[in-house]
Structure formats: structure tokens, C-alpha cells
Amino acid sequence: MRKLFVFLFLATSLVGFAQIKFEPGYYVDNNGNRVEGLIKNIDWMNNPTSFLYKADENAKSENILLGDAQEFSILNKSKYERHKVNVDISSDKLQNMTSDSLPIYKEEMVFLKLLVDGKAKLYTYYNNQSKFFYQKEDKEIIPLVYKKYIKENSKVSKENGNIATNDSYKRQLWMDVSCNTDLKKRIKYLEYKIKPLTKYFQEYNNCEGDERQLFEKKKEGNNLHLSLRPQVSISTFDFDNSVSNESHNLGSKVGFGVGVELEYTLPFNNKKWSLIVEPTFKNVNFKEKGEVEIKMNYNSFELPFGVRYYFFINDKSRIFINASYQFNFASSTSIKFSKANTEAYKSLDVKSANNAVFGIGYKYDRFSVEYRVSTKRDVLKDYSYWDSSYGNISFILGYSFF
Questions:
Q1: Phi and psi for 214 in degrees, rounded to 5?
Q2: What is the reported pTM?
Q3: What is the distance between the alpha carbons of residues 394 and 374, in angstroms, rounded to a whole number?
Q4: 75-99 as b/e: b if 16+ CB within 10 A
Q5: Which domains does the chain have, with CATH numbers?
Q6: What is the pLDDT of residues 318-368, one digit of tens each?
Q7: CA-to-CA distance for 228 and 218, rounded, in angstroms?
Q8: Per-residue pLDDT reduced to its tens digit, 287-297
């Protein structure tokens, strides 16, 4: 418990050093006035209903609501416009699908994200599922129709092919957003996804001679990272027998390990969130001397799956915290009891036990350091009368290859 308190103290202390990132931008108020300043770049996954604005670095931030701004933009990165549009609220979840092929529209006032600017504009709205809209020459904004539904008189099952698709967006593009035969040929295979639709609208605008192009700046960098992570751990182990009142505390021992971490950075919220998995081999030796000598050479393979969150200080420097659920596999490990200069007369087999792990660290460019706390686990769970508590803290160095 004390180790967890140390972790929480470090987490709350270090997070205070992380900067809240406001970037140059503007918003247009309801009177049509363009207000320059700084906007907090959250890199929203769902379309926002408000945003934080401040006039300059030293000013106090204010929350600008949907009803107070016609549009806002983080310069060269993203732009949102307020529009009243028909949003399809049909579910794409299998258990909630209906046999109605037509969209279920609800008129809503929302911030639409502008993806492509030009003669034909492409917008997106995401709220648990992606919806796309288009506008030609400042006319009405129209939803691109795409809906999955269940064929009539069919059971709800993916396996027997009873899920149908209304892909009327292809007909909409054929009729309204196409300028040559080559583009029309591509529509048949055009997916209802952000990348292919963005590319299509760019090519349409090029065909129409409109120089305005992709509005949103492409995000740079690789989302997949591989790191080598050697570590030093301090482990504790104690166990007791509830019948014989036998109790042993093997104290704290230093062990060593090495792991390889695979990290996938999620493509939203300015890449602050990532998923991690880190296969690790670890070894630690315990020994208690006395009338009865007790030894345990603990070899383990650990496999934690978790989530990480970054607090950026600058482009190369950041603090992170992570939480994982760890699968543990003990390798031919046992606790051996022996008297002086004799063979072991008793042994207890050590089994695997899973647990949670929490870490806090600092990363600069390709290098990182992490302090990690593991919750305690019972490695003698197969014995009715034996209880044990194995725990450790680790100090981990890391080098990222990519």
C-alpha cells in the first residue's frame, strides 16, 4: 500500500509540470466578429460541444459554448463550423439494428469538422460512429447516406449474411460530386471512411480547378513503437501456514529483468493515449538462513497489457502514467526447505498469479525511465493452508527503436 501511495504522490506531483497546450487560432462569434487568440488543442475524438479560449498566454481561459461561436479553428490543424444538420442516429451495433434501410434522422445543431475545403466541402461528425456530410458552393449541407440494417424476415446474425447496407452515398456522389469518367468509375469501390472520401473530394476539387484542398494538416509520425526495457526490481516475499502457525518473511531482494515493449499510439487527443504490451523475463533469488534454510529462485515471464497517458512538456519531453493487467507465468519455481548441508526435505511449488501494475515515468526523445509498482499476489494459491504475498517495485530504463 505504501508503494501505491508513493506512485500516486509522484503522479500528482509530476503532472503539475505538464503544460496545457494552447495553440494559435480564432473563433467567429454570433455577430460575425473574428476573435484571434489561443485555443486548447484537445484533438477531439468526438466532435466538441465547446472549446477553451484565451486571448494570450497570460490571460485566463474561458469556455466557449456551441451557441456562442459560428466556427473556430486551430490554425493549420483543424476547423469546426456550427451547422444545423440531419444526423442519422441509427445504431450500427448488431443488437440494436432494425430492418429499416432508411436513415433515422434527428435535426441537431453541432460543430462539424471540415476535412476538405473547396467547391465541394467534406465534413465529418463523430459521436460513437462516423458520419459524413458535403456541401457544394455554400448551398445546403447534405448527409452522405450509409446505413447497415437487417434483411427482412432474417435472424440477427453476421454469419449467415443477413446484414445489408444502404450505400446511397455512392449515388449521391455520382449525381452531384463527379466531374469526369475516371472519378465516376472509382465511386463503385469507394469506402465510407475518412481517408478514401477525403482523397475523393480532393480529386474532385482538382478536377474543377479549385486550389483549396485538404484543410486538416496530416499528422506525422509512426503510431507503432518498439522499445528495449532492462529493469532492476526490488521484490518482497512472505508466506505462512494457517494450521501450524509457521511464518516466514524472506525480506527484500534485488532482481533483474529485461522486456520488449510494443506501444500503439491512438490517433486522437494529440496522441496522448496509447496501448502497451511488454513481454518481460525476470529473475530474483530469495534466501532465509537459520536452523532451517529456505530458498526460492523465482524465474517468471510477465505479460502486461495496459493503457498509457502522456503529459507533454515540449515536442521531445513528456511525462507518462500507465496502468496494466499483468499475466504472470512462473518457470519451474519452488520454495525449498533444508537443514544445514543437507538436501531439501520439503518443497512448495510456486504457481502463477495475475495482478495489476501501475507506472509513472519520463520520456525524452527515444529514452525513457519508469517507476513501476505491482500489486501483491498469492503464488501459493494451490495450497489450502499456505498463504503468500509476493510484490515488487521496478525501475525501468527504455530505448525506443522506432
A1: -55, 120
A2: 0.70
A3: 8
A4: eebbbbbbbebbbbebeeeeeebee
A5: 77-207 (no CATH), 224-400 (2.40.160.20)
A6: 999 999 999 998 877 888 888 877 776 788 888 888 999 999 999 999 999
A7: 29
A8: 888 778 888 88
